[in-house]
């Protein structure tokens, strides 16, 4: 397989374990297993941990335990455990669906900017990829009329992501139903990356139904990473038809074989008790949104944003700067992670995440303002320096 370098992952790997204030993180502030058990208010967390530690770590059921698949299936309408495949993160689920459904020459429409995998994998298969852009010019909103123009009778798949990584754009119920109508007119599948499902804002946009509930040829992708704050479990899933789930399972035999037994056990608890986790998340998001609003007001001369309608991510526009690559390095060197917009085709932006612990988020923003102002001063002074020539 020939595939392009994953630019964002390479950059994140360089810095994410070194910075002190990661405010580009795409998920909610991660929890330990013990914290998850305390947040979900289960009886006797010590006994659960002791049982898990004493259990022999055999291979788990290849497609995820029936218990976990039933819990996941219950979060959709009319979906059974056989329609679910548990995977090693959402990234594996996306990869399996692409390779199960697509062939070289197929036409695919992909929402961009996006998590790079969503556009790079179909290209590597040899598909013709058309980008459905969510742009600053549109105010970072989805243009459904544009999607309708992009889809043809050759379109095999439409790929959507809402709430959107990295812009915070949002597809409501009526908009998702229109996506389904557009897909149905072409006989196309819809791959719906729902990594930010349940990540609503206090008083914010209402949660729409998952795409799997709306359209029969839709595949909904879920993960323990974003809403649940447990990316280290490396566990995700796809909700599809039983036939497609089994086809993806057959492909997965050659990749990761089965999910982790420990991850499966703890995921069951977290998903079954997600209302408690949502309350925790609302507290974090509510505080951080207020902090961000104040910060953008106070620093409106150098930065601006379109506040996300749901999810955790948004793009910071750095005024009078065409490319933030060097600035993002400077920020990281100072201990603050804000991802470079060039990784998303938005080079004059930085990606921010509002899921960090509030005290770290607030201090990270203050440090970021100082670094950005200093960087702008240095650039301005450099531009004012007279050039010299050697004669």
Explain this structure.
The longest helix is centred in the last third of the chain and has 27 residues, at 358-384. The chain has helices at 7-15, 33-39, 45-54, 66-73, 89-101, 117-125, 144-150, 173-186, 211-214, 242-252, 261-272, 274-298, 325-333, 358-384, and strands spanning 21-22, 84-87, 107-112, 128-133, 155-161, 189-193, 218-223, 236-239, 303-305, 313-318, 336-337, 339-340, 349-353. Helix 8 links the parallel strand 5 (155-161) and strand 6 (189-193). It has two domains: 7-32 and 276-381, Aspartate Aminotransferase, domain 1; 44-272, Type I PLP-dependent aspartate aminotransferase-like (Major domain) (Aspartate Aminotransferase, domain 2, 3-Layer(aba) Sandwich), CATH 3.40.640.10. The protein has a seven-stranded mixed β-sheet, sandwiched between helices. Strands 9-10-13-12 form a four-stranded antiparallel β-sheet. Strands 1-11 form a two-stranded parallel sheet. The chain starts with 6 loop residues before the first helix and ends in a 7-residue tail after the last helix. Helix 5 (89-101) runs parallel beside helix 6 and helix 5 (89-101) packs across helix 10 (242-252). With 391 residues, the chain is of the alpha/beta class. It has 14 helices and 13 strands. Residues 387-391 have low confidence and may be disordered.
